[in-house]
Specification:
The protein is an all-alpha fold. The protein contains seven helices and no strands. It is 69% helix and 0% strand.
């Protein structure tokens, strides 16, 4: 009677290459390679936050899908806006993890703060906020990706890189 995975399973696969075992291991190695005295604490705090963020993302992805696809409680437009929001959160996580893989002592010292500054997953369930933000322009995807990267770099103290990315976005 095994019908295979349901239509809303598989959100975990979206994290492949974003925050998976391989990326996690690379970030841990980068932190310890700095030989900073605070590297271990920074790694533990950052890993704990990003693991929780990834788990929250998967849970929200499943809930959004089930509400729209399985229970059909929400309009296709609301479903679309929620999925765009989740896509933005995934992009933020991906940009941060890419920076952490190349962490130097400066990045390590700010990593926990940067991890805690990721956009809230719960905001993807906030209907009022989702409808006040315009998500119609297809160019926004590229711009948001660039700005997410810019914001991550600023949070990690990479201001010159962030300034370059912000100029590129404009």
């Amino acid at each position: 009677h095994d019908r295979g995975p349901g239509p809303c399973e598989g959100g975990e696969r979206e994290l492949d290459g974003v925050w998976d075992d391989s990326i996690r291991e690379q970030v841990e190695q980068a932190f310890f390679a700095t030989k900073a005295p605070y590297a271990e604490n920074a790694w533990q705090g950052t890993a704990r936050q990003l693991d929780q963020y990834a788990n929250d993302w998967v849970a929200m992805h499943r809930e959004v899908c089930e509400a729209s696809v399985v229970r059909q409680e929400e309009s296709p437009e609301l479903f679309g806006r929620k999925m765009v929001c989740l896509g933005q959160r995934l992009t933020e996580l991906e940009q941060l993890s890419k920076l952490l893989v190349e962490a130097d002592a400066d990045v390590v010292s700010r990593a926990v703060v940067a991890a805690s500054s990721l956009g809230q997953i719960s905001s993807c369930a906030d209907e009022r906020a989702l409808f006040t933000e315009s998500v119609d322009d297809p160019r926004l995807g590229d711009l948001e990706r660039l700005l997410a990267n810019d914001n991550r770099r600023k949070a990690l103290g990479k201001y010159k890189d962030g300034l370059h990315i912000a100029k590129e976005a404009l």
